[in-house]
Design a protein that fits this description.
With 421 residues, the protein is α/β, with parallel strands linked by helices. The protein folds into 2 domains: 3-30 and 304-419, Alpha-Beta Complex (Aspartate Aminotransferase, domain 1); 49-299, Aspartate Aminotransferase, domain 2 (3-Layer(aba) Sandwich). Helix content is 41%, strand content 13%. Strand 10 (336-337) and strand 11 form a beta hairpin. Helix 11 crosses helix 13 (399-420). It starts with 7 loop residues before the first helix and ends with a helix. It binds pyridoxal-5'-phosphate.
Length: 421
């Protein structure tokens, strides 16, 4: 529906209609949830054979007993499989615990307490800043907030962050020490960084010599469609600033969200520094799980087949939400949304000052959405126009109803705002 050509009277009539439909939905006392990007039980079931491997296999063909201490950097079999999947050298793959957020926390803590590769620890500086493409992942912002790191918001466009602005900032301020990026199927817009953006991130001049990009490749294998865009590999010959990148991955949304494995991929220099610091922190992570994951993931082709099964479950859920948005708002300039080719999220952009109202109206009608402001540092969405939608966890049979509540609330709040004018 195109509200822009409507008279004030027509807007008011449509508003009354949306309000009535919303009231009917409230009376249904629904209990729906599109708030967090969790895999559904059907997706988790896809990896149940992994548990049998854990139960029965814990020593390598070479006879290494993985129930015992050792292998700080992870079992060689998993480092090898992940290296092949990610097109990197196995010597640069360090396996972590069951999730990547924890690895990011550790890497940031080390830079904060001990410094990056022998440079001044960040805690000794009067001010530390990070660039944050916005909208972004709430937990990255929470992490930075906990360390008292100042967040500089930079707009995230359809092909990645606004690089003119990023280049200008990092070249002129030595307190800018890093940047968080979700380069493939970003959380929450689902965009993929273009080759041009990745190349500019590799080549840009930074005033800080210990500047690091936290390359959170959480959705590296999470394609919903075969024609999903690929991401340029930063661990390539062409990259003259390879030390700049810490890449994080995990199998939280491949195997189990609470029983997967994570990995840090970084240059030789970064790896040596991380290894030294990690050796004071632990003797090893869970190698039984690591070895089982190596057996389960096997190869890039096997992973592709496994992820295609995830996509079969996820794709229809995304399509129900997107079809409902298209049906209600195709061609509209007041409600816009992303149509990602992979990942876990859709972002809806409303008129200014409307997002929190939509979320409130959804809640009233029994649909939980992620809280307003979540995709912005310090939860401050000054425009109040971003809504993150996560369709993965809701059961398939509830998706139509979720879409109905969402669209009705969007209509209600948008028309309410337009009628004020
Ligand atoms: N990074 C991004 C961009 C995410 O969206 C998520 C989860 O939603 C995570 C990291 C968390 O990953 P993990 O479970 O490996 O900590």
């Amino acid at each position: 529906m195109d509200y822009s050509t409507m008279s004030q009277e027509a807007l008011q009539n449509n508003f009354n209609g949306a309000k009535k439909r919303h009231n009917l939905l409230v009376k249904e006392k629904l209990n729906l949830d599109l708030s967090r990007g969790k895999p559904s039980p059907e997706q988790l079931d896809l990896s149940m054979p992994l548990l049998n491997i854990c139960n029965s296999t814990f020593s390598s063909p070479k006879g290494t007993d993985y129930r015992n201490y050792g292998y700080l950097d992870g079992v060689p079999e998993l480092r090898e499989v992940l290296a092949e999947i990610l097109s990197v050298n196995k010597e640069n793959v360090m396996i972590g615990g069951s999730n990547s957020l924890n690895l990011m926390y550790d890497v940031l803590s080390r830079a904060y307490c001990f410094g990056v590769c022998g440079q001044t620890p960040w805690c000794k500086l009067s001010e530390i800043k990070f660039i944050c493409p916005v909208p972004g992942y709430d937990r990255h912002f929470t992490l930075l907030e906990q360390f008292g790191i100042q967040m500089i918001s930079v707009p995230l466009n359809d092909n990645g962050p606004d690089m003119d602005l990023v280049e200008e900032l990092v070249a002129s301020d030595q307190n800018i020490k890093g940047m968080f990026c979700v380069p493939r199927f970003s959380n929450p817009t689902g965009i993929v960084y273009s080759d041009e953006v990745v190349t500019r991130l590799m080549n840009m001049k930074t005033l800080a010599t210990d500047f690091r990009i936290f390359w959170d490749n959480a959705y590296f294998a999470h394609d919903l469609y075969p024609d999903a865009p690929k991401l340029k590999n930063v661990f390539c010959e062409e990259n003259q600033n390879i030390d700049r990148f810490y890449m994080f991955v995990s199998t939280s949304k491949i195997t189990f969200a609470s029983g997967g494995i994570s990995a840090l991929v970084c240059s030789d220099k970064n790896f040596a520094s991380m290894h030294k610091m990690l050796s004071a922190q632990t003797i090893n992570y869970d190698k039984i799980n690591q070895y089982a994951h190596a057996q389960f993931l096997q190869s890039p082709e096997n992973l592709r087949l496994h992820m295609a099964k995830h996509a079969e479950i996820l794709r229809p859920k995304f399509e129900i939400i997107i079809s409902a948005l298209r049906e209600a708002f195709e061609g509209s300039t007041v409600v816009r949304w992303t149509e990602p080719k992979g990942g876990y999220f859709i972002t809806i952009t409303t008129l200014p000052k409307v997002a929190h109202r939509v979320i409130e109206l959804c809640k009233k009608a029994g649909l939980k959405l992620t809280e307003a402001g979540c995709a912005h540092p310090l939860h401050r969405d000054d425009m109040d126009s971003t809504i993150r939608v996560a369709p993965s966890f809701a059961p398939m049979e509830e998706l139509d109803l979720c879409a109905k509540v969402l669209v009705t609330s969007l209509e209600y709040a948008t028309l309410e705002e337009l009628c004020k004018k």
